[in-house]
Amino acid sequence: MGLILVNCPLFGLAGSIVVCLCIVVSAAVYTGKRGERYSPWNHFISELGEQGVSKAAAVFNIGLMLGGMLFVPFVIGLAFTINNTWAYMAGLMGVWAGVSVLLVGVFPMSNLTPHMRAAMSYFR
Fold it and tell me: Looking at residues 66-95, what average pLDDT do you find?
């Protein structure tokens, strides 16, 4: 557990950078079904990972998987650093969110039913 506690902030920072980069890169090259550019006003963020539509779907999906994997040890380390009941409960919710975002990457929008379950789990 000591290694996780020592690197806890690095996991959080790395995960945030990975997710931000995957979103920016995939949004920059996105062209929708009607030839339109990506806009958060007109598209769901999940459309960046839609296989067969998004040119950088793999970048987006792999980025979410990596970001989720990095978020889990971050929240575990944070919970053990704070070391109280509320922190442990928040840590469990953080692990749930990390696994959920990982699953959003595993099940992109082109696989709609499991994608919606993972996405709704994350947003809840």
Answer: 94
